[in-house]
Amino acid sequence: MKITHIEHLGIAVKSLDEAIPFYENVLGLKCYAIEEVAEQKVKTAFFMVGQTKIELLESTEPDGPVGKFIEKRGEGIHHLAFATEGIQESLDFLSEKGVRLIDQTPRKGAEGLNIAFLHPKSTFGVLTELCEKPKQ
Ligand code: CMX
């Protein structure tokens, strides 16, 4: 298992239109991309902070993972994403260690990354994502 850095922090918000001006005009960060991930029923906005990103997540459907999260727990930190080398090997290793995987194999996430989620009930309450840049 090789984690290299925190790739991003995912923050669930009710409205990107309302949240982006805070990140840009108050915190002074620049939104460099907005992308819809239809499969996950979210629209995302990205900000770079050093080599780590902030990913704002607005739900596009009330029954999506972020819609349900906001309904139950309100806006706030939704997930922590680690950049890993060898994502499938990491998933196999975690599975062997008894960690509950949401994704058994990586799938495509925002920005074309290969991603996989670990269940928060297995990771001390933090929805955890592994990410890897696809090999060229
Ligand atoms: N962080 C911590 N705990 C969470 C959570 C989160 N983000 N989301 C749900 N939970 C907890 C709930 O509070 C609940 O706990 P209790 O049973 O103690 O109340 C439990 O997990 C089950 O939650 P639920 O509301 O019944 O939701 P589901 O089981 O249907 O789904 C989860 C939860 C994590 C499996 C689902 O949200 C998932 O598959 N997430 C991964 C995909 C995702 O989040 N995509 C959005 C981002 C996409 C992107 O970044 O591109």
Can you offer a commentary on this structure?
- By secondary structure, this protein is an alpha+beta fold.
- Helix content is 22%, strand content 42%.
- It has 3 helices and 8 strands.
- It has an 8-stranded mixed beta sheet with strand order 2-3-4-1-5-8-7-6, sandwiched between helices.
- Strand 2 and strand 3 form a beta hairpin.
- The longest helix has 11 residues.
- The protein is globular, with a radius of gyration of 15 Å.
- Carboxymethyldethia coenzyme *A binds next to strand 3, strand 4, helix 2 and strand 5.
Please write out the topology.
Blueprint: E1 2-13, H1 16-26, E2 31-37, E3 42-49, E4 52-59, H2 65-73, E5 76-85, H3 87-96, E6 107-108, E7 114-118, E8 128-132
Parallel strand pairs: 1-4, 5-8
Antiparallel strand pairs: 1-5, 2-3, 3-4, 6-7, 7-8
Carboxymethyldethia coenzyme *A is lined by residues 10, 37, 40, 42, 44, 55, 57, 65-66, 68-69, 72, 78-79, 102, 109-110, 117, 119-120, 125, 127.
Ligand inventory: carboxymethyldethia coenzyme *A
* Apparent shape: globular
Rg over C-alpha atoms, rounded to the nearest angstrom: 15 Å
What count of helical segments does DSSP give? 3
The span between the termini is 21 Å
Sequence of strands across the biggest β-sheet: 2-3-4-1-5-8-7-6
Overall mean pLDDT stands at: 96
What proportion of the residues is helical, as a percent range?
A: 10-25%
